[in-house]
Amino acid sequence: MSALEISAKIKAGELKVVDAVRPCLDALKENRHNAFTPVKTGHEERVLKKAESLQKRIDAGEFVDSPLAGVPIGLKDNVSQINELVTGSSKMLTGYESVFNATIVDKIEQAGMLIVGKLNMDEFAMGSTNETSFYGAVTNPHNNDRVAGGSSGGSAAAVAAKEIPLAIGSDTGGSIRQPSAFCGVVGMKPTYGTVSRYGVLAFASSLDQVGAIASNVSDCSALLSVISGEDKLDSTCVTKKPFCLETIDESANLSGLKVGIPRNFLDVDVLDKEIKESVTAAIETFRTAGAIIEEFEMPLMEYIIPAYYIISCAEGSSNFSKYDGLKYGYRSEKAKTLNEVYRLSRSEGFGMEVKRRIMVGSFVLSSGYYDAYYKKALQARELIKNNYLKLFEKFDVILTPTTPITAYKLKSHQTESEIANVGIMKMYMGDIYTASVNLAGLPAISVPCGVDGEGLPIGLQIIGDSFADEKLLGIAKAYENIAGSVVKA
Amino acid sequence: MSKWEVVMGLEVHAELSTKTKIFCGCSTVFGGKPNTNVCPICTGMPGTLPVLNRAVLDYALKLGVTLGCNINQNCKFDRKNYFYPDLPKAYQVSQLYAPICQGGGLEIEVGESGEKKFINIHQIHMEEDAGKLVHESNFTQIDYNRGCVPLLEIVSKPDFRSGDEVIAYLEKLRETLMYLDVCDCKMQEGSLRADVNLSVRKLGGELGTRTEMKNLNSFKAIARAIVYESERQIDLLESGGEVKQETRRWDDERGESYAMRSKANAQDYRYFPDPDLLPISITDEELELIRKSLPELAHQKRERYMKDYGMSKIVACTITSHKNLSDLFEITTEHSEQGGEVANLISGEFMRLLKSSNTLPEKIEPEILGRKFAELVKLVVDSKINRGAYKEVVGKVFESPHEIEPMAYIEEKGLLMITDTGAVEEAVKSILAKNQSAVDDYRAGKQKAFGFLMGQTMKKLGGTASPDVIKSTLTDVLKG
Predict the structure, then answer these.
(1) What is residue A130's predicted lDDT score, i.e. its pLDDT?
(2) Domain-terminating residue out of B253, B285, B317
(3) What is the CATH number of the domain that holds A59?
(4) Which residues from B are below 8 Å from A200, CB to CB?
(5) Is the pLDDT of residue A403 over 70?
(6) Considering CB atoms only, which of B48, B89, B272 is closest to A365?
(7) Is the pTM of this model over 0.80?
(8) Which residue, B7, B14, B54, B473, has most beta carbons within 10 Å?
(9) CB-side neighbour CA atoms (13 Å) of B92
């Protein structure tokens, strides 16, 4: 049952909120894929109580206009909810409870939705496999030996395993789209500035964007219509009106659509053969439906990964400085002096990957290197952004694979060992199709387009023009309508 | 000494008097209980984001326009990264790469001679203040009330050659900040702070290594610290030593400075543009609005006062030496329409009261004083009270501005002049009746007797009637 169907049934009195949420709570308890992070004692009772009071409000006629009233939802473990744990899946914040609600939490509650719990993620959203989580890796519902992807691994896995109908994710370089592709679900990173970041633990502020993960495009659109819109607490959140579901439905058409295909993206060494075939088939689906397909050479491809990692690590190194062991979160018991509080708490509290990126970020910002790295990366970013601007004068959307390979085997990128640096670089290359979208602030959605020989899902990425999110969702829905049944894993 | 030249530059931090902080809605009021004017944003709790208080921008523009700076209409905020407990985000939001103002400056008048000199501004930028550490014997507490209070940092070029120039500049800058209503400039409360960068060189030679002095809490301390530091550097160089580039902390009680940290292990602040705050664009229209809204500044007031009220330069300077004084002058004048009399009151008796009670002009309340002083000015000008009573009540109002109501006090003490000539006539008659011999003397042509009778009458009336009235009444009655 889709999220929209659940809400319709609840509003029609055919389903109780409690009955919709109980399976989610059971899944949380069982936690088969390790998608959920720990909860406070008495959690289940509190959620059930909320479900009851929500039921009363729905019965009293509240939330009639909300498409998702009564629907359970999970939040990535970087979204603040008052008096609930929010840890970024890091030892650094174990036991930390937020003192306020993220703006999107308010919006979710105002839409009559019910928050089930928090979802596992790579530590502070740094990672592509969910293996950097303090709570351990999330396993892929399609194959227990595979990762769910990251950093929103818990969000994608929980939706794919039908443990929850909807999940909030965040995407800095592909962190919604890549796990969605790995798990065979729909994941959308909207345009930068359409969903408030207030209350979401920051990784790289200029790239982070909150988005939605769902089992189909319509559910995804519905959730985005709930969480999008201006926020006076986030000066980078500039979009005035929330997305409109009706507008999205109206734009669902592929005929006459101008579609760009970056040919060189499909010629990348690391691109898996089966993914290439599957995406090529998806392109044919578009063509058959009347879209005008045109190939082009995407310039600046070699700058995407370096620029992305320099900028994201630089911003992250600054954003993570507040985790200093003084005010909240982890503090080393061995620390005796102020310096030791900083040094030991951070050494012991952060995991390897986070420390690696803090080092990289601090390095590229340090005097003498700023111009050579950070400034250059900003220049590359400008070029990438301007290039997309030009492309969207010509195309309605651009199609690419979401990832070059399907879900990795667990522990294939040892983050703890020295020799693993080669593996790390390979892992970073996995962001090749997704990261430029964040650098340019564009909206992009990953929709399932097939499975490989091992039954692992493959994602098609559709990139839209800036603030053309509704149109993009409509196109994704049109594609899903045609191809949906074929590619369901 | 004469062969050495002292070269100084100033970094002045002015805390802005906006009602709320720079990135959140918390109050900026000074002296609240620790951690009562705080919220998740100014304590940098995970997930929070800053939103610029536009008033801060307006304040910065006011100063920038006044000082003739080039306004950067596309300015940005940068993060200055360092770890310290008073900085909850572990970075300070400031401006390095694209500060709001560059260039411009202030003309100062130095020393007794009033020699004019132009001090160039390098840049003015907006930033947030840090919290405050409260050290106890064996632990330290952190008060974040001051955290995120908006600051303007005004960085001068190394244009100063003497302590007098520095003080003249600071006085002029303080005056400007206060008249713009941008900063209350209370040095004791830290709302105006100055760091002095100082080096010495042989006249006309290359610039020497500089030190930076911090913790300068009064103009007096600044003047002393400059003398101390220039002598220290000269002594060092003359004895063959070297000046180390370092930050030094001034200890005003001991009258000396000591090294805090050397630049050798200086921090790398890893400045970069703050991605949480969008670049600010300032339109030409906004700038024009600021230009139009600029209040009258001290020097403009001085000129106007001299022209409109015939004040001498000294009186005009005294009254404009602090915004509270010119405010007091203007409020009192507005209510009494007696500019000349008010000018005398403020520059004379009122200044004496400030001095004798050791009161800083920043402590007075012009609104309350002005209204009450105006009443008194009107009374004395209309001869309804005499000068003595006027001075007495002014003093009382100054002492307890909230409690003393001038009219009630005057009535209670019977200080009102008698305007009823009948009462004066009665008093005159009774005096004449008691002093027949003096009356006879007067009539015999002895003028001295008139003075005696006049004195007796005044005494009887206790100074509540004007001498003119008594004189004419006495003359009339004697003529009888």
Answers:
(1) 95
(2) B285
(3) 3.90.1300.10
(4) 47
(5) yes
(6) B272
(7) yes
(8) B14
(9) 24
